[in-house]
Amino acid sequence: MSRLADIPVRIEPAVRTGGLGGGVTAILAELAALLERLAEHGDAGAIDLRSLPMSAQDRAALQAVLGEGEVQATLQADGASSIRETQVAGVWWIEHRDRHGEIIAELLEVAAVPLILGRAADEIAAAARRLRAGITVAAATGQP
Amino acid sequence: MITRDAATPASGQLSVGEMLLAHGIGRRGFIKFCTAAASAMALPPWMGAAMAEQLRNAARPSVVYLSFQECTGCFESFTRSFAPTIENLIFNVISLDYDDTLMAAAGDAAEAALASAMRDHFGNYVVVVDGSIPTGAGGAYCTAGGRSAVDTLREAAKGASAIICVGTCSSFGGIPFADPNPTGAWPVTAIVGGVPIINVSGCPPIPEVITGTLLQLVSTGQIPDLDEHRRPKAFFGNTIHDRCYRRPFFDAGKFAKTFDDEGARNGWCLYELGCKGPTTFNACATLKWNGGTSFPIESGHGCLGCSEPGFWDKGSFYSAESTPQWGKAGEATPKQVVELAGITAGVGAVLGTASAGVSRLRQASRQKAAEHEHQGDE
Question: What is the ipTM of this complex?
Answer without folding.
Answer: 0.78
